[in-house]
């Protein structure tokens, strides 16, 4: 206080509250230990500021600290070259070396992130008993086992690098190493369950507080825990792009050309296997969460499903939220429920087998919505983004008018359903077309005056089958499917009636012949 009295009255004094942390008083240094110490001081200072009742809210805001960048500072390979060395290389070769260096640098970053996930998240949460060891194992998987895998590739690339920084041939290294990525099958398959458990644990105040403090720390680069856990998957899908980039800048007469093409084929096969395994795991994950109100709802096609084509939230005609699953062979409508803080799905009505599924693409305003659905949109608004699914056989009496959030999601659902039902429609159409020539031959015997009609029918039937088999784009022929749905029942009845009449005529002829 004596010092304060001796100060001139006209001197501006900087309020102490503006100093957000003691770490700001420490000059930047390269020493990692001192930097970590500064971060620790900053963390404690922020805790103290948040508890201080006298400081201004704006001054104590945590956003006052400098925001660290989300990405690392990257340096191009060409920027590290000597001027004379750079002039001796062609532009194409420089781009090739840039692509190889990008792959090498990406491996190094991945290794650092995997180690960071263990040291900054897994180990502290285990030591502080924020999560149990079993829960952490379920969330983190075998991350430690993948660090040596990528270190081996990084070491091989380092050995292949010449003193001038160039790599002559990378193909043999990749062909030998890429098949080892099959090790990620288990990790990627467990991601859905791991994410669900992590989201559940975030409801715990201690977990939430720990993750928030990590997010605000410089080491996280503003990435949350799941971003670190998802880095291996995002790295996997980059390998084909990196290899194609290297191949694009490799001269035609280079020995790497054929080997790189083989490497691209290998990584695409690995990713295909991982995706297949992940799809099966995701499918089983949701099957295990289904709850049945009636034994009749249980269908062996649900338990036997290996692929989940589409799933998501839709609204029914009454405005109630449904969660719909389109498995490979059956459509299941459910109501999301919570059981012991865990998500479950209660099966709603009778599941519709894809073979018996009929889709109607409805236009905006085609259907008058009633109940709470009308209130949700207002009397002046028309129902938009709607479509209808039902059994082909009207006897079950089940029809579901569903609404998506927007046009994009509606089109996704319509395309997925059309893709699922297309094989069954082709087989049914092919079966009907195969029967037509036999009937036309019989009518030709009875009416010799119409031989040209028979040939035309036979020709149109053959071309129809060919078009059905070659048409793989379901979205293009979707309108044709919808327009023919309403005519399907009538045409079926008419054709069956003609068949019965012809069968009677034929049976009568046979009887006369026998007599």
TrEMBL record:
Q: What are the residue boundaries of the PH domain, all occurrences included?
A: 307-422
**PROSITE patterns reported for this sequence:** DH_1, DH_2, PH_DOMAIN
Region called Disordered, residue ranges: 48-71, 436-515
Instruction: List the biased-composition ranges (Polar residues).
Output: 453-465
Stretches with biased composition (Basic residues): 489-502
List compositional bias (Basic and acidic residues) regions by residue number. 503-515
The record's annotation in Pfam families points to: RhoGEF, SOS1_NGEF_PH
Q: Which domain of life is it from?
A: Eukaryota
Has the keyword Secreted been applied to this entry? no
Query: Where does it live in the cell?
Result: Cytoplasm
This chain's protein is named ARHG8 protein
């Amino acid at each position: 206080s004596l010092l304060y009295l001796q100060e001139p009255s006209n001197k501006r004094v900087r309020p102490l509250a503006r100093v957000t942390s003691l770490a700001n008083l420490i000059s930047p240094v390269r020493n990692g230990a001192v930097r970590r110490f500064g971060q620790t001081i900053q963390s404690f200072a922020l805790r103290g500021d948040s508890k201080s009742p006298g400081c201004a809210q704006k001054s104590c805001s945590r956003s006052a600290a400098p925001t660290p960048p989300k990405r690392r500072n990257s340096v191009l390979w060409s920027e590290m070259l000597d001027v004379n060395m750079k002039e001796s290389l062609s532009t194409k070769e420089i781009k090739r070396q840039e692509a190889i260096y990008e792959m090498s640098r990406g491996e190094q970053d991945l290794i650092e992130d995997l180690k960071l996930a263990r040291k900054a998240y897994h180990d502290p949460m285990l030591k502080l008993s924020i999560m149990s060891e079993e829960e952490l194992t379920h969330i983190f998987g075998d991350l430690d086992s993948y660090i040596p895998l990528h270190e081996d590739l990084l070491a091989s690339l380092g050995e292949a690098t010449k003193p001038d920084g160039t790599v002559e041939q990378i193909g043999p290294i990749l062909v030998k190493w890429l098949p080892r990525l099959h090790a990620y099958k288990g990790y990627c398959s467990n991601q859905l369950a791991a994410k669900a458990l992590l989201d559940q644990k975030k409801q715990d105040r201690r977990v939430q507080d720990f993750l928030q403090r990590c997010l605000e720390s410089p080491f996280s680069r503003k990435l949350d825990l799941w971003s670190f856990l998802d880095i291996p998957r995002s790295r996997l899908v980059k390998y084909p792009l990196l290899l194609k980039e290297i191949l694009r800048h490799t001269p035609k007469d280079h020995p790497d050309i054929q080997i790189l093409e083989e490497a691209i084929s290998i990584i695409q096969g690995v990713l295909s296997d991982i995706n297949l395994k992940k799809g099966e795991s995701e499918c089983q994950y949701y099957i295990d969460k289904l709850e049945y109100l009636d034994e009749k709802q249980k269908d062996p096609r649900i338990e036997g499903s290996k692929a989940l084509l589409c799933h998501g939230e839709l609204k029914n005609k009454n405005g109630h939220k449904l969660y719909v699953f389109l498995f490979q062979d059956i459509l299941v409508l459910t109501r999301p429920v919570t059981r012991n803080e865990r998500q479950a799905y209660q099966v709603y009505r009778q599941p519709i087998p894809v073979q018996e599924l009929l889709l109607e693409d409805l236009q905006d305003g085609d259907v008058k919505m009633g109940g709470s659905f009308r209130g949700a949109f207002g009397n002046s608004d028309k129902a938009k983004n709607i479509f209808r699914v039902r059994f082909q056989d009207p006897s079950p009496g089940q029809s579901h008018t569903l609404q998506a959030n927007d046009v994009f999601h509606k089109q996704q659902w319509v395309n997925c359903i059309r893709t699922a039902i297309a094989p069954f429609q082709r087989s049914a159409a092919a079966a009907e077309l195969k029967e037509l020539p036999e009937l036309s031959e019989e009518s030709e015997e009875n009416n010799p005056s119409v031989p040209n009609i028979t040939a035309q029918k036979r020709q149109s039937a053959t071309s129809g089958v060919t078009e059905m088999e070659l048409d793989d784009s379901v979205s293009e022929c979707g309108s044709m499917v919808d327009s023919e749905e309403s005519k399907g029942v009538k045409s079926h009845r008419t054709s069956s009636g003609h068949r019965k009449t012809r069968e009677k005529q034929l049976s009568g002829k046979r009887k006369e012949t026998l007599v």
